[in-house]
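Before a colleague's protein record goes any further, I have to sign it off. I want your independent view on whether this chain really folds as the tokens say. The record follows directly below this note.
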Amino acid sequence: MFKIKINSFIAIIASKTVLKLSTILFKGGSNFPGKIALALDKNILSTVTKGYKVILVTGTNGKTTTTSMIYNILKKDGKKVFTNNTGANMNTGIVSSFVSFYKFGKNNEEKFAVIEVDEAYLQIITENIKPEIITVTNLFRDQLDRYGEVHTTYTKILEGIVKTPKTTLVLNGDESLLGKVDLENPTVYYGFDTPIKSDTVLSVNADSKFCKFCKNPYSYEFITYNHLGKYFCEHCGYSRPNLKYKVENIISLTPSGSEVTINNEDFYINQSGEYNIYNGLCALAVTKELGVSSDPIKTSLSNQESSFGRQEVIDINGKEVKIILVKNPAGYNQAINTIMLNLNESTPINLALMLNDNYADGTDVSWIWDVDFEQLSKLDIKSTIIGGIRLYDMAIRLKTAQLQEETFKMCETDEELLNNLINAPQESTYVLVTYTAMLNLRKLLHSKGYINKIW
């Protein structure tokens, strides 16, 4: 007979009820049901995760896309699997996700949960979950008010990992902070074994520039982007670890996707940008560690759809609007690089930028001064639509980057921004938007019938 504690039973029933009501009344609500469950049973995760093989995905950039890729590969391989696809990656959202899929009674079938986890919450989640795999994508400066510099983020992640020493770690070997970690866990690395470009000198705004052991500057055989690449320290000898899963050749890098050779096999990743090669490589490494063969990985990666807000394309009255989530200098620069890859300098476009400073975005927006907006000044931008709570900070930054001030459309409300999107002169608009601004925009688009669902 399957037994469950009375407080756990009440917590699950109450959370499921709230989840159903919030879905009906508010078209969402991914955190509040988890708050209810945790208030009634602080250890509810240990109950609702029983029977699952859990994969946790954390790191600064790429979590949502990588989570989606792993989920789709496992689903393609015929596995029973769920994920927290709304991006609710703190403990309350994760609890809500598990509760929503929880069924009373014993079930012996193999099932998987692929869960995106905020870096600061990993140590809370691993109190009650002992996952099969934890994967870490990268470590960039992000939300300085919450994390400070990257070493703080690194420390928070390690504090979560040490609680589950039997979990396999799948780590980005090109991330210098993740090499030579002093942990008991079985560990494998993925990364690039070929350059994307000829860069060997770090940008002045790159993140982890100094050896984590002796504090001398790193040298590089090549850099992929920001501080990622094949690094080594000439002073103490610390260098990138051996890679089990590696990109050996970049066959093509186009606006629609990338064809690459990984461990002697060719894969097409149906998402553009260097960072999506990393995401695809990470998903491959994780699923290979779970015993998945190459065929479902190839099929899934070649058909990967955009997660909401991650190069998502929306039709607004016949005009193409591409939404790209941005939240820190490394990710923003990659988004700009992707736009530059998609266009030539004579292609007329509209550009929309939304900057919020809510808790989930990071209240310190000084990071926008480390973004290479100057690249955008090379484009033929007919309308520059600016919105969000900190729209004037963004306008000043764009003005100093030499974007044409006469094209600026300052939008105090999301309604104004949507009207400018609708009336923008060109057929193609790129929207660069921080997290809560993206959610607000999606709610508005949903209310106007331009998208079918908020999440």
